[in-house]
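hiii so um. not sure if this is the right channel but i have a protein structure encoded as tokens and i wanna go backwards to a sequence. like what aa goes where. can anyone help
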């Protein structure tokens, strides 16, 4: 078994700072969206992903992949949003097991109303504090982490060895 290379003090401070920023920013975005627009951050995430595609419709599995959510979480979220008229769940005629999630006019109106204040928050708490060079450095760092996350882990055999 490989020996663990523990985090240095500087690495630990950086890691815990990132965890704190992630938790606090997520909570703040959720509170602000709820208070100002009656949307949860989960609602906003779904709506953003639907506005990012030309026909404003995604297969459930595509939306789940984009959000990195489990099927049950996505299904419950879509059901709640459909009940509020923000999205519509439509059966896929080509695949009986599949379904589409479509953005409704009310969903589009909701995201258009929420986006300006949401962007103001993100700009105020994050980007206004950085130079363009720092933003470029952050982008490079985050994209590097994302690329390493996308690398598939090797298959593991029943005996624990790499398959």
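sure thing!! here u go:
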């Amino acid at each position: 078994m490989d020996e663990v290379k523990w985090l240095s003090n500087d690495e630990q401070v950086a890691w815990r700072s990132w965890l704190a920023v992630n938790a606090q920013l997520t909570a703040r975005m959720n509170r602000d969206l709820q208070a100002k627009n009656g949307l949860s951050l989960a609602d906003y995430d779904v709506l953003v992903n639907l506005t990012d595609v030309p026909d404003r419709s995604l297969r459930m599995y595509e939306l789940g992949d984009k959000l990195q959510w489990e099927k049950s979480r996505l299904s419950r979220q879509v059901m709640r949003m459909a009940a509020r008229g923000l999205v519509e769940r439509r059966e896929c005629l080509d695949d009986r097991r599949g379904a589409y999630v479509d953005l409704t006019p009310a969903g589009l109106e909701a995201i258009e109303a929420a986006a300006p204040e949401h962007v103001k928050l993100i700009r105020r708490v994050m980007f206004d504090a950085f130079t363009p060079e720092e933003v470029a450095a952050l982008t490079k760092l985050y994209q590097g982490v994302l690329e390493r996350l996308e690398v598939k882990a090797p298959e593991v055999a029943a005996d624990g060895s790499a398959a």
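oh and The chain has one domain: 9-150.
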